[in-house]
Write a structure and sequence with these properties.
- This protein is an alpha/beta fold.
- It is built from 10 helices and 9 strands.
- The protein has a 7-stranded mixed β-sheet, with helices on both faces.
- The longest helix has 15 residues, at 51-65.
- It is elongated and about 65 Å long.
């Protein structure tokens, strides 16, 4: 296999791994990562892998076939307009979560405001927003110090100016502090079959699973966020589509106004919004 051209190697390994997690696209991305090239160079020049690179590729494929997310293996994931470092201490950012970024950008212009990304993980939401709205003051908070180290690396890599806070939800902040609070909290029920899907078992369970049918943290945030929002401030929360009615009921129970939901690209209710009068 030493010195074998990349395209032939991708074909051979993809054919061998048809019934496992590692797809042809995964093999291709692993080759690009190992060689440090882009797809155009791969298909134009068809470079060869050294013996050591071939061994590394087989090792990465083995990890992928055990279900480990590709993003953990190569150490990064694209989100919005950023490339983010990720490891086993944070969730792999999902395309669905970009809806939170999209909706906030559509609601607020370049005028200065103060925003909190609550339970930031890799920093995907907060960093994406500050990249589009550099005049904003953005705080990224998380209970996990290990997660915040990932956020710190992404802050540095992308040269973004955000404040990092190690805190249990809103405990570190003063009331009436923010114009916008946004959160993608744990919202998966502990018995949900999605926890057994490809890659999920490698992700931090504390960032995925919540008690009370997945609603415990969502309820906590909706209940308390209004005390930390300024007048006319708003809260946006990501949740599972099947939780839509429960989440809307929570916004109503805690007297938010202008309550609405936004759909992801699949047409599922994914984000709920409420405002403080």
């Amino acid at each position: 296999m030493s010195g074998e051209n990349s395209l032939e190697l991708i074909y051979q390994l993809s054919k061998k791994n048809l019934d496992q997690y590692c797809s042809k696209q995964d093999v291709e991305l692993l080759v690009l990562h190992i060689l440090g090239i882009n797809r155009n160079v791969l298909y134009r020049e068809d470079p060869s892998l050294t013996e050591n690179q071939s061994i590394m590729l087989k090792y990465f494929i083995k990890r992928r076939n055990l279900g480990e997310p590709l993003a953990y293996i190569i150490g990064n994931k694209g989100f919005w307009n950023l490339e983010l470092f990720v490891d086993e201490n944070v969730l792999v950012p999902r395309p669905e979560t970009e809806l939170l970024v999209e909706r906030i950008l559509s609601l607020y212009n370049l005028s200065p405001l103060r925003l909190l990304d609550l339970g930031t993980g890799s920093g995907a939401i907060g960093l994406s927003l500050i990249s589009e709205r550099p005049s904003w003051e953005v705080y990224c908070s998380d209970l996990s110090f290990k997660a915040l180290k990932v956020t710190q690396e992404n802050k540095n890599n992308n040269k973004m100016n955000v404040h990092l806070i190690n805190a249990d939800w809103l405990s570190a902040f003063s009331i009436n502090s923010f114009d916008v609070i946004v959160s993608n909290p744990p919202y998966v029920d502990q018995n949900d079959k999605r926890l057994f899907e490809d890659g999920v078992s490698f992700e931090p369970m504390e960032a995925l699973v919540a008690e009370e049918r997945g609603l415990k943290d969502v309820q906590h945030i909706i209940r308390h966020a209004k005390d930390y929002l300024r007048d006319s401030g708003c809260l946006l929360v990501e949740h599972a589509p099947e939780q839509s009615k429960d989440v809307i009921d929570l916004f109503n129970d805690y007297s938010y106004s202008s309550i609405r939901q936004f759909q992801d690209l699949n047409g599922d209710d994914r984000v709920s919004f409420g405002k403080i009068v």
